[in-house]
Amino acid sequence: MKYFKIFNSCKIVKGASQALIYDLDRVDNSSPIPLDLFEILTDHKGKSVKQIKSFYQNQYDSTIDDYFRFLEEREFIFYCSEIEKESFPEREFNWNKPNKIINSIIDFDRSIPISEYRTFIVDLYSNDCQVVEIRSFVKLTLDEIRSFLKHFDYTSILTVELLSMFNDKVKKSEIVELLDEFPRLKKISFYASDFSETNGVINYSTNKVVPDLDCGNVDPKYFSINLDTFSEAQKHNTCLNCKVSLNKVGQIKNCPSMDKTFGDFRKVSIQNVLDKNEIKEDWKISKDEIEICKDCEYRYACTDCRAFTDEKSNKYSRPSRCNYNPYQGLWKGENGYVDVITRIK
Ligand code: SF4
Ligand code: SF4
To answer: Which of 51, 192, 194, 211 is most buried by its number of CB atoms within 10 A?
Structure first.
């Protein structure tokens, strides 16, 4: 007899109205499934199709056949013998990285001279930071962009992304040269531009953006389905974990949009802030603890914004910019959608 096994790269997460098979190797292959298929895959794990049909007294044979055809076609499962079953142990999803900081956002509006940011960037580098996003509220000149990027020379920071208000004096050809000159610069985006154009690396948008207010949107296009995020999301906040940021007046924060501050970077070192541990409190809030999100099948793919939530005084409150109702399995705009807060009240 052959027994079904779920591939180790596939993980099923139950929500209130449906479940989601996360294909952690092939993002686009991930798929929602109905709850009765979730039941088959979890309560009858490792059984043969014949045993499953028989459990349901052969009342649902054709549905079960359809389900298994779907699972085979999408390569979520394979079959093996009784002896082979033991050769495929369950995968564990432990997230553990040695870095004290992984990413940072630096907001900039010329309140502080660019030269003064070098200390903060070196401090990030000393704490193993890998990714830094610079968000400018003003039209950066080419010289300003270059001055910022030079601060990253001789550091081990791998990726710098830049978001700036569009400046028509900065030509696209000059940006292309910058990308060559500063290999850490992986993405540069301009908002409030005269035109829209994107290639993923150099992006122009006509949208008017306020960098610290226009963040935290929840949309499937921002979901991250991969082993790293899935593992991290089990016990951490996937936006704030190991994040140390600066707002535009130089206050150290988890993220620039949050209220809590940990001192001015010109007076307090990152090490000092990390030693006090307070900044780490939000790092450990996982989606399993967040109201409503804990009932959502997308909870290990979705960023957990803690700056914009339904109830400011409740640290476990849902991200307010979410337009998904997990109790209906519907996104705003879909037929019958009801805002989840309205529905709960
Ligand atoms: S907590 Fe929210 S506002 Fe802050 S960086 Fe994350 S998504 Fe953006
Ligand atoms: S309910 Fe929570 S986990 Fe689900 S999509 Fe919205 S914010 Fe993300």
So the answer is: 211
Residues 112 and 257 occupy one common structural domain:
yes
Looking at the CA of 247, name the nearest ligand: 1
278, 280, 282, 287 alpha-carbon torsion, rounded to 10°: -150
Number of domains in the chain: 2
In this structure, are 80 and 110 located in the same domain? no
Instruction: Indicate the residue among 85, 118, 138 that finishes a domain.
Output: 85
Closest atom of ligand 2 relative to the 325 alpha carbon: 1
Chain mean pLDDT for the chain: 95
Residue 304 lies in a domain: no
Cα-to-centroid distance, 93 and ligand 2 (Å): 21
Host domain of residue 26: 3-85
318-345 pLDDT per residue, tens? 999 999 999 999 999 999 999 987 655 4
Environment class of 19 (CB within 10 Å of its CB; exposed 0-12, middle 13-18, buried 19+):
buried
Average pLDDT of span 199-225: 94
CA 99 to chain centre: 18
Dump pLDDT digits (tens) for 144-203: 999 999 999 999 999 999 999 999 999 999 999 999 999 999 999 999 999 999 999 999
CA distance 155 to 104: 14
- Do the domain assignments include residue 235? no
Given ligand 2 and candidates 17, 287, 310, which is best to mutate, with the most ligand atoms within 8 Å of its CB?
287
Of 85, 111, 137, the residue at which a domain comes to its end is 85
How far, in Å, from the CA of 291 to the mean position of ligand 2?
10
Q: What is the DSSP letter of 328?
A: T
Looking up residue 50, the CATH number of its domain turns out to be: 3.90.930
